[in-house]
Specification:
The chain is an alpha+beta fold. It contains 9 helices and 13 strands. Helix 2 runs antiparallel to helix 9.
């Protein structure tokens, strides 16, 4: 107000100069002191737009959308990927934003998002073998109640397994990484109902093969040596991170598959360049303003 009340030109110009400098100094002080959070455009990071896949004509409910958000949050927190912002969009979409993410972390995040992690335990055919798999796959033989599933690892053997499940992922109470004589593995604890089913199935099928399946892919097939119930281990050629990740997936399975429909990545270097350009433009603008008012 005092600036507009001054009638003389020179004092008014000096007043405008002091006012502009003061506003600039206050802005810099506020920014540096309170460390205002920067978005992915400035810090660099990744943004995923996700779509929850519908089951036929059945629409996704708000409750299901929130359940998916909670599951993704738990998975990402368990894998220590850093700051996460998950926002619902519409009825079946979710926006995920993560600042300060590297290219390597970006690939890990995509895998976490797209892995459904539906665990199933099924009995395998007693004569399951590459020969039987090929005969069924080529239509030369048909076995009622069985299907062929691929192995999750490249070079692993597919198997002929029963369509009916002994237990599934809804019966998982806990899963965690463990270290055994052969390396890292995943220890799984079942709920009481699942443990009872497993105890009954293993008792009836001693000496027969049982398959552990995740997302319709064979993880392992092993012969039942002893009767067991609510706990078992999943072995494989896992390193520490892979075993930790699989246990996190099994504890937090997605009820419905997720599709990444859009992905935006800004490298940290690009974000810093944007800040630098903005700072340079601000200084240039301030200098031009001071030249105008003086």
């Amino acid at each position: 107000i005092a600036y507009f009340a001054v009638e003389k030109v020179i004092p008014r110009r000096w007043g405008g100069t002091v006012l502009a400098a003061g506003v600039t100094a206050f802005t810099l002080y506020f920014f540096l002191t309170f460390q205002m959070p920067l978005g992915i455009e400035l810090r660099g990071g990744v943004e995923f737009q996700l779509q929850i896949q519908e089951d036929g004509d059945k629409e996704i409910t708000k409750t299901e959308q929130q359940q998916v958000i909670a599951t993704l949050q738990s998975r990402l927190d368990a894998n220590g990927v850093g700051e996460v912002n998950l926002t619902p969009q519409g009825d079946n979409r979710i926006l995920l934003q993560m600042p300060a993410v590297t290219e390597e972390e970006r690939e890990t995040i995509r895998k976490i998002l797209q892995t459904t992690a539906q665990l199933e335990i099924r009995m395998a055919h007693p004569q399951t073998s590459p020969f039987l798999v090929n005969r069924i796959s080529e239509g030369e033989e048909f076995l009622t109640g069985y299907e062929v599933l691929p192995h999750r690892d490249e070079g692993g053997e597919a198997a002929v397994v029963e369509i009916l499940k002994v237990v599934d992922g809804t019966q998982v109470a806990n899963a965690y990484r463990a270290l055994g004589p052969e390396g890292f593995m995943v220890s799984v604890q079942l709920k009481k109902k699942g443990g009872d089913r497993m105890f009954e199935a293993t008792g009836k099928n001693l000496g027969k093969p049982m398959a552990i399946i995740v997302d319709d892919e064979i993880v392992s097939v092993a012969t039942i040596r002893d009767r067991f119930g609510d706990s078992f281990v999943i072995t494989g050629d896992y390193d520490q991170q892979e075993a930790e990740q699989l246990s996190s997936f099994l504890k937090n399975p997605l009820a419905k598959p997720i599709e990444v429909i859009n992905e935006t990545y800004v490298s940290p270097a690009m974000g810093q360049e944007t800040i630098k350009q903005g700072f340079t433009a601000g200084i240039a603008g301030l200098c031009l303003t001071l030249l105008f008012v003086l």
